[in-house]
Design goal:
The complex is a heterodimer. Chain A is an alpha/beta fold. Chain A contains ten helices and 13 strands. Chain A folds into two domains: 215 residues, P-loop containing nucleotide triphosphate hydrolases (Rossmann fold); 65 residues, Alpha-Beta Plaits (2-Layer Sandwich), CATH 3.30.70. Chain B is mostly helical. Chain B contains ten helices and two strands, in the order H-H-H-H-H-H-H-E-E-H-H-H. Chain B has a two-stranded antiparallel sheet. In chain B, a hairpin with a 5-residue loop joins strand 1 and strand 2. In chain B, helix 2 packs antiparallel against helix 4, helix 2 packs parallel to helix 7 and helix 4 packs antiparallel against helix 9. Chain B is globular. In chain B, 51% of the residues are buried. The chains are: A alpha/beta, B mainly alpha. At the A-B interface, strand 5 and helix 2 of A face helix 1 and helix 6 of B.
Chain lengths: 311, 275
């Protein structure tokens, strides 16, 4: 049996007048993925998520949720839940009343799950208070609870950890990991790579409305490559050796004037050290420096980014 | 899995209304104004009260005249305002709170949400008119007693029949009120701004009254929404004059139906980008 992927996005475009907020986004979230949708603020993440949830109409392209088009109405959202931007509730109603209202709009026995989801997000003792008095973090947690009421198979979360304190961020990560462990497919957006690095298996990086990378985190790490730092008794000569050495490229100078390069393999580094000795540039320091995903993320999302890293 | 219907949305819209202060502002006014009005009549005593409006001169003779005079005064801005207070707010407030996205990502289709909101806004307007009617009758009867009233044709109408006619008048009065509610819903949906929608609805209502008194536009008068607020007076003629009542039915529909359809279409198709 062929089942449709939880989320498929093809050629998605949203224009507001002259402004193109989303410019041809393609992505596929497979069952069981914890998918990080990454990009700087204003890259088009939230607009994409609104289209995924059927809140706004695409100018072009399409979204499929388990094969269904969210533009056709709420029925397409069966098995799907989430929020865009900060989750919003009726401030004059209590947390529990808000959930009761949403459960009523869900039907399907959602009302019977209210205590359960309040426990999941550890909000039961504050459920009797008006939402107007909730902190930002409590609002985020209530948003997750409201989503879980629907027993989703696909959870779409827009910047779930934004505005949380470090403990709140950690709790949010643990919660997402736990939900994923229960078999839920999750897409979460973030402008911080570090936030999704620990929980996501796949990511898409979006910049100015376009996906500049989509693939596994492992591939992204590989693409980031390993940079080395080199100090010798004669850096001028060492630089000339590096420039012609096979498997060594991107030779340059670091901020402190030391040499840096990238190596295709570890063996190429060993061979380089031999070549340096033979040339009379004695190695004083040769240390690998892992390019962080953060570096790569900035490289991909900042203006000077030339081309996409091949996935 | 069967999706929840309009009744569920309607019930929750009423609960939301019950939890908001503004709800009680309008309904409170609907209850307090008749009491203040009758109190003023009693305090001033004698032949006080507005004698130049229909039934104004009978205010001290029978309580039946009180709701009728209030219907006349209320049509200028009080009832349109009370109606607009909720109809103009019911969609725009969700835009403002950002909760539209919250309720539109559940299992209920947009058309049902809209229908539930429309019914809730109608219910509120109906409640306001009913409260004014009942309180005005009770206060009027307490102050002036339940006595026969003189119809616009100069005939004497027994108090029993008078009560029935007051009830019928309130019902007919609901037609333009619900048309105002539809205009409020349209403005609420289009402007996404509660204050703009409430004030805008009131402005539309006032502008139509203004058109009615402009010289040379008299021919338009029977087809203005504001004129339909007087249609109930047909009940207080002998025999009953059905012409203004029937006209009110279709003229009000002419204002209400397109506004409601437009509001619904905008609501169904609009991008929910706020919040």
């Amino acid at each position: 049996m062929v089942t449709a992927a939880p989320l498929e996005v093809r050629g998605l475009v949203k224009r507001y007048g002259d402004l193109t907020a989303v410019d041809g986004v393609d992505l596929t979230v497979n069952s069981g993925d914890v998918f990080g949708y990454l990009g700087p603020n204003g890259a088009g993440k939230t607009t994409s998520l609104r289209m995924m949830l059927g809140l706004i109409r695409p100018t072009a392209g399409e979204v499929r949720l388990f094969g269904r088009d969210p533009q056709l109405g709420a029925a397409a959202l069966e098995g799907v839940a989430g929020f865009v931007e900060a989750p919003r509730f009726y401030p004059y109603l209590t947390g529990r009343k808000n959930l009761e209202l949403l459960a009523a709009l869900d039907g399907d026995g959602a009302a019977g799950r209210i205590d359960e989801v309040l426990d999941v997000v550890e909000l039961r003792d504050r459920a009797g208070d008006r939402v107007g008095g909730y902190s930002h973090g409590m609002g985020q947690r209530l948003g997750i609870a409201a989503a879980l009421l629907r027993r989703p198979r696909l959870l779409l979360l827009d910047e779930p950890a934004t505005g949380l304190d470090p403990a709140g961020m950690r709790d949010m990560r643990l919660l997402i990991r736990r939900l994923a462990g229960q078999g839920m497919t999750v897409l979460l957006s973030s402008h911080l790579l570090a936030e999704v690095e620990e929980v996501c298996n796949r990511v898409a990086i979006i910049r100015r409305g376009r996906v500049v990378y989509e693939g596994s985190l492992a591939d992204l790490r590989r693409a980031a490559g390993v940079a080395y730092r080199l100090r010798t008794t004669d850096d001028e000569r060492a630089a000339r050796v590096c420039a012609v050495q096979p498997g060594i490229d991107e030779v340059g100078r670091g901020d402190d004037g030391t040499l840096s390069f990238r190596a295709e393999t570890e063996r190429a580094v060993g061979e380089l050290s031999l070549a340096l000795s033979e040339a009379g540039a004695l190695v004083l320091e040769l240390a690998p420096r892992m390019a962080t995903l953060e570096d790569l993320f900035f490289e991909l999302t900042e203006d000077h980014a030339a081309t996409a890293v091949p996935a | 899995m069967s999706a929840p219907g309009v009744a569920v949305v309607y019930r929750w819209e009423l609960r939301k209304l019950r939890s908001q202060k503004r709800t009680y502002l309008g309904l409170g006014a609907a209850a307090v104004v008749p009491v203040l009005f009758v109190t003023a009549l009693v305090v001033q005593g004698g032949r006080s009260g507005p004698r130049d409006v229909a039934f104004g001169r009978y205010l001290h003779d029978t309580g039946l005249a009180v709701p009728l005079v209030l219907l006349l005064f209320g049509s200028i801005w009080m009832f349109p305002l009370i109606t607009a207070l909720v109809a103009g707010d019911i969609v725009a407030a969700e835009d403002h709170n950002g909760t539209l996205k919250t309720i539109l990502t559940r299992s209920v289709e947009r058309e049902r949400i809209f229908a539930g909101k429309t019914l809730a806004a109608f219910s509120y307007a109906i409640a306001a008119i009913a409260i004014t009617g009942v309180v005005a009758l009770a206060a009027g009867i307490a102050a002036s007693g339940l006595h026969p009233i003189i119809s616009l044709s100069g005939t004497r109408v027994s108090s029993g029949r008078g009560l029935v006619l007051v009830g019928a008048s309130l019902l007919v009065y609901l037609m333009p009120i619900l048309a105002v509610a539809c205009i409020g819903l349209l403005l609420s949906t289009v402007t996404r701004n509660s204050a703009a929608a409430v004030v805008g609805t009131l402005m539309v209502s006032l502008l139509l009254q203004l058109v009615g008194i402009l010289p040379g536009l008299g021919a338009l008068r029977p087809y203005l929404l504001s004129t339909q607020f007087d249609a109930w007076q047909g009940f207080l003629r002998t025999p009953i004059d059905w012409v203004p009542i029937v006209r009110a039915a279709w003229v009000c529909a002419l204002y209400a139906v397109p506004a409601l359809i437009a509001a619904g279409l905008v609501f169904l198709r609009r991008d929910v980008a706020g919040g």
